[in-house]
Structures are given as C-alpha cells and as structure tokens.
What we know:
Layout: H1 19-36, E1 39-46, H2 50-59, E2 64-66, H3 70-77, H4 88-99, E3 106-110, H5 114-123, E4 126-128, E5 140-142, E6 145-146, H6 155-160, E7 165-168, E8 171-174, E9 178-181, H7 189-198, E10 203-214, E11 218-221, H8 231-238, H9 246-250, H10 252-287
Antiparallel strand pairs: 1-3, 1-10, 2-3, 4-10, 5-9, 6-8, 7-8, 10-11
Helix pairs in contact: 1-3
Amino acid sequence: MPRSKRDQKVSLTKTDRKGLSNKQQIIEDIQECRQKYDNVFLFSVQNMRNAKLKDVRTAWKNSRFFFGKNRVMQLGLKFVSDDGDEDPKLEQDLEKLRDQMIGQCGLLFTSESKETVLDWFDSYSADEFARSGFRATKTIHLKEGPLEEFSHAIEPHLRSLGMPTKLERGIVTLYKEFTVCEKGKVLTPEQARILKLLGKPMAKFKVIINCCYTKENGFEEIKKRDIVVTKKTKKVLNKKPKKAKSEEAMSEDEDEDDEEDMSDEEDEDEEMDMDDEDDDDDEDDDKA
C-alpha cells in the first residue's frame, strides 16, 4: 500500500516563544529586587541539574534567584533613579557586575551578609551521576563473575551498552573482566549509562559565587570565572556594546523571527511562481 499523505508525524515538543512581555517582566522583577534586597551575587553552576537548583531555591526561599538570558538580566541591573539623580559610584559598580555576566550564570538577590552566603555555598555540594563528555575522576574495573545487583531482565540492555554479560541460572554474569572507564578520559554515553546503573556518581553539583555587589562595600570579585570559549562568549569577549539599549536587546529575537518569516514568504513566492509557470505550460499544451 502506498503511504498516505495524511500519515505525517506531528512533534509534540514544540513550545511557544515567551515573547517580549516575559522579558519585560523579568527586567521589572530584577529592578524591584534590586531595591528590595541589600546584596546581589553573581554565581555560576558546575554540573547543572534542575532538581538540585530547586533544592537550593527552597533553602534560600527568603531570597530571589534569576537564571535567564544575560542581556535581559543586564537590562534589569541598569541603574534608573526615579528622581533622575544617578549615583555614579552605584552605576559604576553595577556596570562592573554586568561586565562579568558572560556565559552561563545567574543572579542571587538577598539581604543576608556576604559572609553567610559564602559560607553556605562553599559548604554545599551534591553528588551527581556524570554525563557524556565528562572526564572520569577514577578508573572503574569490574572483575569476572556474577552481578547480583542487576535483574535478569536488564541483561540484554547491559549487552547493548558493551558489557560482556550472559545469563547463568537467571543471574547476570560477566564472562570476562571489563573496564567501564579510565581516569582522565572523556566518558561516552554508554559509559555514563553504565556508571549510573552501577550507582557510581562522579560529578558534583556546586554553586560558585564569582562576584557580588553589597551596599556596604560595593562591587567585589570573589572568584575569577573560567569561561568556556564558545561562539557566543567569543563575540562578547571581543566586542562589548557601547550602550545597553533595551529595545535593541529585547527585539533581537524578534528580528530573527522576522528574518525567518521573510524567508518563508520568499519560499512561498517561489512556489507560487513555479505553480504559475506550470499552469502556463499546461495552457500551451492545450492550445497545441
């Protein structure tokens, strides 16, 4: 049977863009928090996990976390006074804080002292299973013999991951020695999956405080960031904007959408032109 044109796969993972109104709301929330709280901390996350970040938010429920696009958060930090009189020292300190917002980072607004924040985040960490691309921190070697921690039903899956396993009297058994990973080498997706099945976490989720602005001492750099150089971060490092215009920053995504719409319209026009040419050819054939 030929395939029906109606038989098309529809992706259910598409989500609507949050749009300009959501960005404006984030900017207003940041400006409100800047007036409400005494201190602002810029942080980065090692081995990001959403569940662990939710635990941190719960522990600091009297504070406010922002983890979004840098250019939107930078606009929220821009100093605007209702009286029109801007404090040059405050504007200079906030400018230093905005310059540090490169790559993946977030903001913490709190009234707790700097010492309290640093002590808590220095002591907090959580073990997590490593993902592919992570460098192994130790060598995991499995000896030949039974693996009683696994059910017999998972044995085909272990074999598909590259483990030399077989079933002996309903027990998953390694018929030869197997090295899961070696220290210092990058993990593959299969190795990361095996480590998770073995219950051996190698990564640590940790929030690092990089710099802060406090009402008492102003801007202070606490720990220098190791920024991973990508296409986006390279552009930011090489070229700094002269003026932070809210309209340009927030409409950048809309311009991209307009370009996509224009390209779609051009494609539709080309298709219409092709259809017209086909109709003309058909008419010529009829006349002939």
